[in-house]
Write a structure and sequence with these properties.
single chain, alpha/beta, 21% strand, elongated
Length: 209
């Protein structure tokens, strides 16, 4: 009896193969289902991040448009009474495209609104608002330096850029896009921000960033 049992266990004949084959198939299906579950979860996470990114761009674009309605520029900032108000966007082409859609057919204080993608080294004269996005630190420093002396509202979404001297900085607070305002660089640019906009700000710094 012992010989029979041992022979049956070791014999690679048809009595053993179906059991071992079924086990392997079940194991393979288990791994495939696990892999499929991981891939689906990763895909859902990517879609969620993409949706959140698009929503954040829409909110920031709306803010940039609204900012223009609460800021006063010197008369010399516009060549003619019917000159457009120009919003420059640097280092954020997707945001620029979203902003173009948002301002299409709209105006600010009777002026049409134009959106311009700004590249490193381009002159900033003629802009009224400049958003500084994902750029190298040296490029950001150059643009901020070039903006000084101009009646130009600078907007960022980085604490580092805000510390360099941008006037408005987007921040996330309680899962919402809010903004901080630094009044010192605003005054140096000889532009004025209305009290209503300051009341809507998350934080207002009277001494700069």
């Amino acid at each position: 009896m012992l010989i029979f049992n041992w022979t049956w266990w070791r014999h690679p004949g048809p009595l053993r193969r179906p059991v071992r084959g079924a086990g392997r198939r079940s194991l393979r299906w288990g791994w495939l289902l696990l892999l499929l579950g991981v891939l689906c979860a990763d895909a859902r996470a990517q879609v969620q991040v993409q949706v959140q990114g698009e929503l954040e761009r829409q909110v920031k674009a709306a803010y940039l448009y609204k900012f223009a309605g609460y800021v006063e520029w010197p008369d010399a900032s516009f060549a003619r009474p019917d000159s457009p108000l120009v919003i420059g966007v640097a280092g954020a082409d997707a945001l620029a495209e979203q902003l173009e859609q948002s301002v299409a057919g709209h105006s600010v204080n009777g002026r049409t609104v134009q959106v311009k993608k700004v590249r490193r080294g381009e002159a900033l004269a003629g802009l009224h608002v400049l958003y500084l996005g994902a750029l190298e630190k040296t490029a950001l420093q150059e643009m901020l330096a070039a903006s000084r002396g101009l009646a130009l509202l600078t907007v960022s979404d980085s604490d580092e850029v805000y510390a360099m001297g941008s006037m408005i900085n987007f921040v996330m607070a309680e899962d919402k896009v809010r903004f901080d305002v630094a009044l010192k660089p605003v005054a140096q640019a000889h532009i004025r921000i209305s009290a209503r906009m300051l009341l809507a700000a998350y934080r207002v710094q009277t001494g700069g960033a």
